[in-house]
Amino acid sequence: MPSSRSLTTAVQNLLTGVNPQVEVEMVEVQVVVVEVQVVVEMVEVQVVVVEVQVVVPPVRLQRRDV
Length: 66
Known about the structure:
The protein is an all-alpha fold. The protein has helices spanning 2-16, 19-33, 37-65.
């Protein structure tokens, strides 16, 4: 499933902070949007990104306390 790989790569790029590659993934997503399946994936991506951002800060705060 290329969709899953593209989403996983996009998430990894966001975590890594690689803006150029993220833009490339975004272009692929837009192209797949025509298939209408990505519409559902887009919702999942937003939820995953929110969870990732929420999970990262607490970990850093805990590390600082330790």
